[in-house]
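check this:
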Amino acid sequence: MQPPDTESSFCTTCAGRAHQLKKTLEVNAQMIAADPALEWVIVNFGSKDDLHDYMMAQLSSLSHRIVYVRELSGRPWHSSVAKNTAHRLASGRILMNLDCDNFIGDAVETIRLYFNNGCRALHLGSGASRDGTGGRIVLAHELFYELGGYDETFYPMGYQDFDLLERASAFGAPILKAPCLGTLALPNNKQDSIANCKKDGMVWEDYNRRNMMLSLKNIAGSKLSARERNAWIEITRETYRGEQQ
C-alpha cells in the first residue's frame, strides 16, 4: 500500500485498446504535466496490440508523474483485478478510475470542489445511457482500501463500478454525483468491452446480470468490504515513468 503523498491520482487500465489510448493520451498527459498535484497510473494488463511499444516511444515526452506499468503474468483480462492493480500503485489521497477511452476534461476542478467540502465518494457522469462516462468513479484513498477495492470474485466485466459505489454508500459514504459532458468518452460497444475476456459463451449482458446478483447478495449480507474476497496477488510487472521533470 502506497502512502498517499499526491493530491489526486488518475488510474487507467488498458488491454487491446491501444487505438483508443492513442487518442486520449496527449490531451490527458498535458493536463497532468500542467499540475504538480496530479499523477496518472496507466496499467497495460496483458495487451496484445502495440500498446507497449507505443508507450515506450512516448515516455521521453511525458511527465515523470505519469507511471506506465506492464503486467507480465499473462492473466486473462479481468476488470476488477486490473483496476485494483492501478489503484494500488497510485499514491494519491484521492483516486479516480479513468477508463482509457476517457478524457480528464474538467474532472480536476470538480474533484477539488467536492473533496475540499468533505466528499469521500463521487460519481462523474453525464446521465446519458452508455455514453462511456459511467466508470468515472472517485474515492478517497482510505475509503478505497476500507472497501477492499473492486470485487475480484466477479465475472471479468460488468457492474463492477456500480457495485463499488453501492458498497461505499452502504458503508456510510454517501455517493455524490457531479455532471460531466457526454463527449468525454470515445464510443464503444459491449462487444469491444469483453473482447479480451476469457471466452465462456457469455455476452456482456450475462456478465453484468450475474455480477449484479452477486453484488446485491453481498450488500444484503453486509459483506461490504471485498478485501476478504480478493486475492490482491502482487503481479509480475515492469514499471516505467515519463522522463520530463
